[in-house]
Amino acid sequence: MKTITTFLSLCAALAAFSANAEVKLEDNAKILGKWVVTAEALALDREKKPLHVTWEFQKDGTLVTTGEDARSGIGAMNIPIKYSVADGVIKKQTMPGREKYEDCAVVEMEGNEMILKCKFLYFFMTRK
After folding, report:
1. What's the pLDDT at 73?
2. Over the stretch 42-74, which tens digit does the pLDDT of each residue have?
3. Is residue 2 a contact partner of residue 61, using CB atoms and an 8 Å limit?
4. How many CB atoms are located within 10 Å of the residue 72 CB?
5. Tens of pLDDT along 71-88?
6. Under DSSP, is residue 13 helix (H, G, I), strand (E, B) or coil?
7. Which DSSP state fits 24?
8. Which of 23, 86, 81, 25 is nearest to 55 (CA)?
9. How far is it, in rounded angstroms, from Cα 59 to Cα 28?
10. Rounded to whole angstroms, how far apart are CA atoms 28 and 42?
11. What is the DSSP-derived secondary structure letter of residue 10?
12. How far apart are CA 52 and CA 67, in angstroms?
């Protein structure tokens, strides 16, 4: 009986680990280019809020965010921030001009789809 309980506990731990497995990046090669951020969510299993934003990861370590705020009437805005890949994750500036960075881990990458987990949000992206 103890063996069965131990086995089931081990299986549950492995299932939990594989559900949260991340894609470890060696460099920026897999993420270079334009990505459409289609939605954001507080957790993978929570409601997704639709977005209309584009992130372009450039070779020089610049991440250009392009978005449009329909309420302001300004039109599309391009916001460049710095990023790098280290320790298997994307380290990106939290705001332009500030040297404060947040880690964003690639939770899933399959074909042209990617899910990033940053400090507070998950971003659901499609390569453009």
Report:
1. 62
2. 999 999 999 989 999 999 999 999 987 666 666
3. no
4. 8
5. 666 668 899 999 999 999
6. helix
7. P
8. 81
9. 8
10. 25
11. H
12. 6
